[in-house]
Specification:
six-stranded mixed β-sheet, 9 helices, globular, three-stranded antiparallel β-sheet
Length: 296
């Protein structure tokens, strides 16, 4: 069902990742990932944008895979092995479907996915997050596995694990069609709409479209684009107005406290007006007041 292509982190792997859609791409394309969306995946595949998988955090994620598998085996008696191999689908209908596998379970048609949750550990409080669920369903679509055991290290010291079973309906009706349409658009150089993770998507869009085509005019046909523009302008104006109003309120409170250190309101709440010094690096050193709500 799938062919082994190369080992992760090799030079070949870095090239082959661009020739298909991997497990970490799937939740982004579906708009489920906090780490990026379809625009980020497109920019990465086209070479405009560095994917998070190349970051130092991702490198540490590889280092913890073996200890997590050992801990899982000690706790459950289920033995797993590291993989690190990129597999690509043999199905002619989905030649772009691929996944780099963390590990597999011995004697069971199941895989292992390891996660180092440093910044988003709170999203695991109610079980495996949606974006991880989508990733492992993608891996099952590539390999034909019946399940994936998700092993997670939260906060740098808390071990959690969960079994995720294959969801054939999700794979057939949502995952494969959505990723297939994305791949078609990517290869046809058609626009790919951003979805979710707006800051990451914005960085990707800036990278991909850094150089405009001189004189090119794009007609945005349809009432939905007029509505989208009006929505953006309205939200931007509201944000600007709110920021201006907040600064004006801050200024009035600071002026009222003056050279004091603390202000106390009739309802008992307090604000501090501490002086903070900005070190002299690019700009000259300066001292300025910072207004914060203070504990009673």
């Amino acid at each position: 069902m799938a062919t082994a292509i190369c080992h992760e982190l090799s030079d070949e792997w870095k090239v082959e990742r661009a020739n298909g859609l991997g497990g970490s791409d799937a939740p982004q394309i579906l708009g489920l990932s906090p780490f990026g969306g379809p625009a980020a995946v497109a920019a990465s595949k086209l070479g405009y944008y560095a994917a998070d998988i190349e970051s130092e955090l991702a490198e540490w994620g590889h280092y913890v895979e073996e200890p997590l598998i050992r801990r899982f085996g000690a706790e459950t008696g289920i033995q797993g092995k590291l993989s690190g191999i990129l597999y690509r689908s043999d199905d002619d209908a989905t030649p772009w479907l691929q996944a780099t596998l963390d590990g597999f379970i011995e004697g069971e048609n199941a895989g292992i996915q390891c996660k180092l949750a440093v910044f988003s550990w709170d999203s695991w409080d109610e079980g495996v997050p949606d974006y991880v669920e989508a990733q492992v369903q993608h891996e099952m679509a590539v390999t034909g596995w019946d399940a994936v055991y998700v092993l997670a290290l939260l906060r740098g010291y808390q071990f959690r694990w969960a079994r995720v079973d294959r969801d054939e309906r999700f794979i057939a009706e949502t995952l494969v069609p959505t990723l297939g349409e994305f791949w078609r658009k990517l290869k046809a150089d058609e626009p790919i709409a951003p979805l979710g993770a707006p800051d990451r998507e914005w960085e990707a869009l800036k990278a991909r479209y850094a150089r405009p085509v001189s004189g090119k005019v794009v007609e945005l046909r349809g009432a939905e684009w007029v509505a989208e523009f009006d929505r953006w302008r309205s939200l931007s104006d509201a944000k600007s107005a709110a920021e201006k109003a907040a600064k004006e309120s801050r200024n009035r409170i600071v002026a009222a406290i003056g050279d004091g250190e603390v202000g106390v309101f009739d309802d008992g709440r307090r604000v501090s007006l501490k002086r903070q010094t900005r070190k002299s690096y690019v700009v000259e050193e300066s001292t300025f007041p910072v207004l914060r709500e203070a504990k009673r």
